[in-house]
Write a structure and sequence with these properties.
The protein has 271 residues and is an alpha/beta fold. It has 9 helices and 11 strands. The strands form 3 sheets. It has a 7-stranded parallel beta sheet, sandwiched between helices. It has a two-stranded parallel ribbon with strand order 7-9. A two-stranded antiparallel ribbon has the order 8-11. Helix 3 packs parallel to helix 4. The two termini are 31 Å apart.
């Protein structure tokens, strides 16, 4: 099985690719000029903004994992161009050169409405107002309408393997004025690999699936786990299900997280 991976040099891609290689996948990384892929991964030079460059990347591909995305930037035009136009270009190349390939798109829990009356479910209506989740939701629709074999994975807060993401949470919590009691669904890099490996078998075809561990954890606890501090509060929490996902569909499809909680990750030195 030849798997084309975009975003191979990113936070998720650099940790996912070695795990796919160890699982026996023949991985091909779509890279811009001058960047190197992890050991055991072949590369193809292409750019999501250059549709013609994507056709050669598709030759002989049986699956596509599309991780490339832009999010924490004030440049909303770049967010939309990268996350929607780039996805459309990749879809067009797949339809032209690899129409039987399985196309797996990474997405985000930020799609769900903050005011949801329950943990975010895959069939919930959503109308995100920020550019990043709105562009990802539009990219999801483009893939669902593409006629390709598809799977969309909405990740909780990604962390682990010394990626620095969780360690940045004290700053993010302050900047976004997050309530300390807010609970958030998380997923360790190991379990992104768990989910992707399962999806490559076809178990998630034609579905949007939430991917997260088994224990949504409060912002207050998470900040403490990484050595930070934040003000405590007993003020009412207005949106108790914000950033909290229902993962029952993933479990029903066979997903079992290896890192079941962030506390397990801390105990086992997986942070």
């Amino acid at each position: 099985m030849t798997v084309l991976v975009t975003g191979a040099a990113g936070l998720v891609g650099t940790r996912l690719l070695p795990r796919l290689v160890r699982a026996g996948a023949d991985c091909r990384a779509l890279m811009r000029g001058g960047k190197e892929a992890p050991a055991g991964v072949s590369t193809v030079e292409a750019d999501l903004f250059d549709p013609d460059s994507l056709h050669a990347a598709m030759e002989g591909v049986s699956a596509i994992i599309h991780l490339a995305a832009v999010f924490r930037t004030p440049d909303t035009d770049l967010i939309w161009k990268s996350n929607l136009d780039g996805t459309r270009n990749l879809i067009a190349a797949a339809r032209a050169r690899a129409p039987q390939a399985r196309f797996i798109l990474s997405s985000t829990s930020n799609i769900y409405d903050a005011t949801s009356p329950h943990p975010g479910r895959e069939d919930d209506a959503a109308d995100p107002q920020q550019a990043y989740p709105a562009s990802k939701l539009a990219a999801e629709k483009a893939l669902r309408d593409s006629g390709l074999r598809w799977n969309i994975q909405r990740f909780g807060f990604v962390y682990g393997d010394k990626d620095g993401h969780l360690e940045d949470l004290p700053r993010l919590a302050t900047g976004f004025k997050m309530h300390p009691a807010q609970r958030m669904s998380l997923v360790h890099h190991r379990d992104i690999a768990t989910a992707m490996t399962l999806a490559l078998t076809g178990a998630m075809d034609g579905r949007i699936v939430n991917i997260a561990d088994e224990a949504p954890t409060s912002i207050y606890e998470l900040v403490g786990l990484v050595g930070g501090t934040m003000d405590a509060s007993s003020a009412p929490l207005e949106d108790p299900w914000r950033l909290h996902m229902d993962v029952s569909l993933a479990r029903s499809l066979g997903f079992r997280p290896v890192v079941r909680t962030v506390h397990q990750a801390a105990e086992e030195g997986l942070m």
